[in-house]
Amino acid sequence: MSAHHRTISFVLLAAFLGGAVPVFAKISLSEIPPLSFTFFRFVLATLILLPLYLRVRQRIGSDLPKVACISLFAVGNVVLFSFGIQRTGAGIAQALYTLSPLLTVIFSVLLLRLEFSRRTLFGVVVGFAGALLITALPLIGRGTSSATLLGNGIIILAVISMTLHTMYSKPLQHKYHPIEITTFFSSMAVALLFIPAFFDLKMSPQWWSSVSAAAVFGVVYAGVVGTALYYLLVQLIVRGTEPVLASMVLYIQPFAAIFWAYLFLKETISPPFIAGLALALAGVWLTANSTIQRKTITL
User: pTM of the full predicted structure?
Assistant: First the structure.
């Protein structure tokens, strides 16, 4: 198998595996409180990433406060996701994550005052039109019976938090290995959620006594496959190809999520959802293929 074909295989595999995360998380969160689910997810991810980190680690030193602040955005993403996915459909949640490239452009303009082309502007407008359509599905005709406006709004906040983490962590990748950044964030999530997870026991003292095998599998999948393995696959893709091909993971993943959601959750899709997803992906494609003036991001 050539390097190009191997990279394409990684793209398809990452999209397929990543699309299942909202589905299995939703199954687990029907039985496990959100904070406890997120805590155990990152305990597992940290255990997987730690041996890799020990092979590439450097001393963070004076950058520790900066790395910690940036990691808070990533922690915010996973916590908000856990609350949001309980209140919306798995396919809808994954579709809303396609907003990240569009938000990156907007934040770059607002926070960094970068200039961008008319094509980029058009892409942002088209993408947000799609995102608004997907978000408003509970008002105009539900794509799934579990979708709510509140859930969609929480997922958008999660996407914003993830986008800010991506933007501000990019300069650190010139100095530190991506595994170091991810392991630090994963470990920080465990530390921050350790005490809140105990509050779940206080609010629901016996929640752990009736957890099904399916819910346990969801936690394991989200931690081992959806966090540690998925991240490693994406890094292999980024290292082995151009950014345009690497971004195909984002294009394909919503459709994988729809497949997984139909298979395990029996979620149905509506014409407004398909229209919104098409607009969001079109906006991402236009934005990703536009030229904007780049600038180093600092915090």
Answer: 0.79
